[in-house]
Amino acid sequence: MATTVSDSSDDATRYRTAQLGLTRLLVRDVRGLRRLILPSRLRESVPDWLTAMNAVIVQYARTSGSLAAEFYDAQREAAGMSGPFTVPLAEPPPEEQVTASLRWATKDLWPRDPDEATPAQLQPMDVRLEQAETKAEQVAQKLVADTGRGTVREAVRQDRQATAWARAAALGACAFCKLLASRGAVYAQDTADFRAHDGCHCGVIPVFKGQRFELSRQAREWERIYREYAEGHPGDQLRLFRRALAEYDSNPLPGSH
Prior knowledge:
With 257 residues, the chain is mainly α. The chain has one domain (3-248). The chain is 54% helix and 9% strand. The strands form two sheets. Strands 3-2-4 form a three-stranded antiparallel sheet. Strands 1-5 form a two-stranded parallel ribbon. α1 (10-33) runs antiparallel to α2, α2 runs parallel beside α4 and α3 runs antiparallel to α4. The longest helix has 37 residues, at 42-78. The chain is globular and about 65 Å long.
């Protein structure tokens, strides 16, 4: 008899809480490093900030991977799977990726010709610093979370007892994430891609042999909203889904209120 697994299970909730706690600590440390950026000496100070940020992100990424491995082991045991299996920990993001992402986050700090600058680049330096910090926090969060998500997905790929994985979105997630999460366990064992944006808190739920994935109550609601208001409109589904969520979802989109 098939058992059910859901993105609202106790294990999934504990794992989500642990990853969110890790994010809070990460953001605290990222904000503490902002003092390294000296507006009067950007060329000299930004490289030092990049080095420090890379070290922090790698440290937290390793912890994210370890939390994901513990979660996978707990899910596997709860599913009653036999045979030994060691979860392969995903590697932290390479320095090149971290540096490129953070340079994007801070690109508006640098002096520009007023005739070529964007509105964001013409803001006062304190405003640009605040915006850069927000972007850097979101970049760091995604890179760290990707390591945890990658750990679970790679475990599903290698584990003969696993069959698929499902996406779990936070209640206040964006329309894009809610749409993908409402699909359930449609991501096969060898599906490698996990589409995530900066600041994305979506998680990965493994599904094992003999299990059936069951959408949580909120994900079923997102599925209903999609089918009722967006399905059947090729090329326009996401816009219509976003509009319907803003009006009918009990967990509103970020910035919708």
